[in-house]
Design a protein that fits this description.
heterodimer, B: alpha/beta, 8-stranded mixed beta sheet, two-stranded antiparallel ribbon
Chain lengths: 320, 305
């Protein structure tokens, strides 16, 4: 069953009608509804195109959080072979909000790390809704170090509301874990490629996305704070999230303009959730092309270029 | 914060002459409620004379007390683009900036200086909680990079006093990008083999804690400073339970292994000198109130962005 977002309600109505008609026709063979249904389909298609042509930043946030969007688990299946998960931070626990391990990407051995949000209530709880605790960052640090020593490129898939705001997480050094993970990204002498596939939430995202190349899916978002959080602080009203989403410039299109990301990966019409296979294939092609730009470079160049990129970031502003 | 005016350098005082007499000569300690006379309070480095509570202190006042004879040279920070996102909440960002500049007589939320402490040359950088909650934007990033470059160039240790509510939301993603940017700065100091000492002061939270404030060679905090990634209110809303007494305070973090030391402001200078001199392989410092050193030549070759 399709999960419709609030702004997709009119679309849900039309698509629902078309579906009903066809269901009727299946029961009653004499009925010929195909013409009417096709007309509804066409209408739905136009509406979908219009809805997605100019998504507002807040709508993009909703699409980025869509439960049917492909998650790290799906990308691991679709884009990688021989995926061998590696677990644990060797200190305290294994954080299931972060999946990661060795894998082959188009035959090349890589280390892949991603936030996993889960797809139903049970798995969402298990993966803590993609909100990592310190153990998650420390596992990632360990995996990045492994990649660095064995010359494997690192691919990170970012999809998190942010780091987990919990008592234990704070006691075990959430800040330090995030800081060290960002630091590890900056120390790598192997290519680091990051794709923001859904939500890029604050420090939880940047700890993995301090990369040589950062790509975003067309309707994903990347921000210093959630629009709701920003609204409740600056507007003193969490309901002003639309205004906050607007002001924060969190869309892939704005971030490309600001020079924070390097490319936008187009999504199928109606978002990645409407055709996950196509969306994931596009992500695969984008990773391959970004990787190709980097694999021939010397380890020193890879490291120094990444540092320089971040040192220079932000000097051009929106006008760029 | 009216006490500041008595301590800003005279030429600034003359610019803001009407602020020379503080409107409010008394400050109430937020901890014990004692009314404190402004002069007595600032003489005690904004530490309550009654209960020892450490209140925020402006970078200038701190540097006056930190550097020998109160003498330091400011290091220029390359100015970033103003209002890069054309951000507007209930107020425009440039208006908020102007208000903060007027209230503090400072340009931005970070002051970078070089000078001597206990006759040991250092570069120091301090965050100003009084300036838009010390929030980290492009300028703060530039300040830390400038400080790191100056430290590396002159082979001096870097001391950083953190104090911030977190990232500056008005700079959106660019404030988040200061986490990697400042991390590069810390790496430069580390790779040069120079000490990087972080003094965490109340409050140090959010993206600031999750980047340069937690990457020091030595972490010292002021007593009872709130130091965290997610604030206690956010956590209480998430886990829906009361947090223990002293949660996320300096002493709590010391217990949980995130800090090396908790040190009172009055003892901070001596402690910094001791640690830095050992790490730099220098002989023990001569203790006591040293007279001002010879004036340093102005850093003509201020690091450029």
């Amino acid at each position: 069953m399709t999960h419709y977002l609030e702004f997709e309600k009119p679309l849900a109505e039309i698509e629902g009608k078309a579906e009903e008609l066809r269901a009727l026709a299946r029961k009653n063979e004499e009925m010929d509804v195909e013409k009417e249904a096709a007309a509804l389909d066409a209408k739905a298609k136009t509406m979908l195109r219009d809805l997605y042509k100019n998504l507002s930043p807040w709508r993009k946030c909703q699409v980025a959080r869509h439960p049917d969007r492909p998650h790290t688990k799906d990308y691991l299946k679709a884009l990688f072979t021989e995926y061998t998960p590696l677990a644990g931070d060797r200190n305290f626990a294994d954080d299931l909000a972060i999946s990661g391990g060795l894998a082959r990407f188009r035959d090349r051995p890589v280390v892949v790390i991603g936030h996993e949000k889960g797809h139903d209530t049970k798995s969402r709880i298990e993966h803590n809704f993609g909100m990592a605790r310190p153990e998650g960052y420390r596992k990632a640090i360990r995996l990045m170090d492994l990649a660095n020593r064995f010359g494997a490129p690192v691919i990170t898939l970012v999809d998190t509301p942010g780091a987990y705001p919990g008592k234990g997480a704070e006691e075990r050094g959430q800040s330090e874990a995030i800081a060290r993970s960002t630091e590890m990204c900056l120390k790598l002498k192997v290519p680091l490629i990051s794709v923001i596939v859904g939500e890029g939430g604050s420090g939880g995202a940047v700890a993995f996305a301090t990369a040589n190349r950062v790509a975003m899916l067309e309707h994903s978002v990347y921000s210093v704070i959630s629009p709701e959080g920003c609204a409740s602080i600056l507007w003193k009203d969490a309901e002003k999230m639309r205004e906050a989403a607007e002001a924060l410039r969190l869309t892939a299109q704005d971030l490309l303009g600001l020079g924070v990301i390097d490319r936008i990966i187009p999504e199928p019409m109606g978002g990645a959730q409407r055709d996950p296979a196509v969306a994931m294939a596009s992500v695969g092609d984008a990773i391959a092309s970004m990787l190709a730009e980097l694999v021939e470079q010397s380890p020193e160049k890879i490291l120094n270029d990444r540092r320089r990129k971040f040192l220079e970031m932000g000097s051009k502003g929106l006008a760029a | 914060m009216n006490w500041i005016t008595n301590y800003v350098r005279p030429h600034i005082n003359s610019l803001f002459s009407r602020r020379e007499v503080p409107e409010n000569l008394w400050t109430k300690c937020d901890e014990c409620g004692t009314m404190l006379f402004h002069r007595e309070l600032s003489d005690n480095l904004n530490v309550c004379t009654s209960c020892g509570h450490h209140m925020p202190i402006s970078p200038r006042l701190r540097f006056n007390a930190l550097f020998d004879g109160g003498i330091f040279t400011e290091i220029d920070v390359p100015l970033p683009l103003a209002d890069p996102l054309q951000f507007r909440d209930q107020k425009r960002y440039p208006d908020r900036m102007k208000a903060a500049q007027k209230a503090t007589s400072e340009k931005e939320a970070m002051l970078v200086a070089q000078g001597e402490i206990g006759r040991t040359p250092v570069v120091a950088v301090a965050q100003d909680f009084g300036f838009m909650a010390g929030s980290m934007g492009m300028y703060v990033g530039n300040a830390i990079i400038a400080a790191a470059e100056a430290a590396v160039k002159q082979r001096r240790p870097l001391i950083l006093f953190s104090a911030a509510g977190g990232a500056r939301m008005q700079e959106g993603i660019l404030s988040l990008m200061q986490m990697p940017r400042t991390t590069v700065a810390v790496e430069m100091v580390r790779e040069a083999g120079l000490p990087y000492i972080v003094v965490l002061t109340h409050p140090t939270t959010g993206g600031v804690t999750a980047s340069y404030a937690m990457l020091g060679d030595v972490h010292i905090a002021e007593p009872n400073a709130l130091i965290c990634f997610a604030g206690p209110r956010v956590i209480e809303q998430t886990i829906r339970e009361k947090l223990p007494e002293g949660f996320q305070r300096a002493e709590y973090l010391l217990d949980h292994g995130m800090l090396d030391r908790v040190t009172r402001r009055s003892e901070m200078k001596d402690e910094l000198v001791t640690i830095i001199r050992m790490l730099m392989g220098l002989p023990p410092a001569v203790k006591g109130d040293l007279p001002a050193p010879e004036p340093e030549p102005a850093p003509a070759d201020a690091p450029a962005e």
